[in-house]
């Protein structure tokens, strides 16, 4: 298992940031590898979603999970076929918002053998780049009228 975290300050109100992160339809905009997102069920504070992600040469993988609205952000958890826990923490500050995104994941079984030969640091660096990209996309979406 590995965990990667990135933080960014965004000069927009926390309510605006939270509204974007809490909208399951925005996931494909915020996740660099997401091809599409399907909302399977939705209630006031939860959404069951399926995200089809691009895994390079391994093709597309459908990941189903639940997104939950929290007091200070959003959490997405999936257990099949990937164990994935993504937490967006949204912290108001004077003139804007601090956003922390944390991804914890377990390599899927079909990649476990290969993953032993790839240094964990390299995997974490690649995921870090993708989290930075997600934060950039969030800042861009928040800046739009």
Strand order of the largest sheet: 1-7-6-5-4-3-2
Structural class: alpha+beta
The CATH C-level name is Alpha Beta
DSSP E strands, number: 7
Indicate the multimeric state.
single chain
Helical proportion?
Answer: 25-40%
CATH architectural designation: 2-Layer Sandwich
Quickly count the domains: 1
Q: What's the story with the biggest beta sheet?
A: 7 strands, antiparallel
> SSE order, as H and E?
EHHEEEEEEHH
The parts where pLDDT drops under 50 for at least 5 residues are none
Measured on Cα atoms, how large is the radius of gyration?
15 Å
Query: CATH fold name, please?
Result: Alpha-D-Glucose-1,6-Bisphosphate, Chain A, domain 4
| Overall outline | globular
Range of strand content: over 45%
User: Ends: how far apart?
Assistant: 39 Å
Count of helical segments? 4
CATH superfamily: START domain
Query: On the 0-100 scale, what is the average pLDDT?
Result: 86
Task: Please explain how this structure is put together.
The protein has about 140 residues and is an alpha+beta fold. It has one domain: START domain (Alpha-D-Glucose-1,6-Bisphosphate, Chain A, domain 4). It is built from 4 helices and 7 strands, in the order E-H-H-E-E-E-E-E-E-H-H. It has helices at about 15-20, 25-30, 110-115, 120-145, and strands at about 1-10, 35-40, 45-55, 60-70, 75-80, 85-95, 95-105. Strands 1-7-6-5-4-3-2 form a 7-stranded antiparallel beta sheet. Strand 5 (about 75-80) and strand 6 form a beta hairpin. Helix 1 (about 15-20) crosses helix 4. It starts with a strand and ends with a helix. About 20% of the residues are buried.
């Amino acid at each position: 298992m590995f965990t990667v975290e990135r933080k960014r300050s965004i000069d927009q109100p926390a309510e605006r940031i939270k509204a974007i992160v809490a909208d399951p339809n925005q996931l494909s905009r915020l996740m660099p590898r997401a091809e599409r997102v399907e909302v399977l069920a939705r209630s006031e504070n939860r959404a069951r979603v399926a995200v089809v992600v691009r895994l390079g040469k391994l093709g597309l993988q459908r990941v189903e999970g639940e997104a939950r609205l929290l007091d200070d952000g959003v959490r997405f958890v999936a257990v099949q076929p990937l164990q994935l826990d993504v937490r967006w923490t949204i912290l108001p500050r004077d003139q804007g918002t601090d956003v922390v995104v944390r991804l914890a994941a377990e390599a899927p079984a079909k990649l476990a053998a290969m993953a032993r030969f790839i240094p964990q640091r390299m995997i974490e660096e690649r995921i870090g780049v993708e989290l930075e990209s997600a934060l950039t996309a969030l800042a861009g979406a928040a800046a739009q009228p």
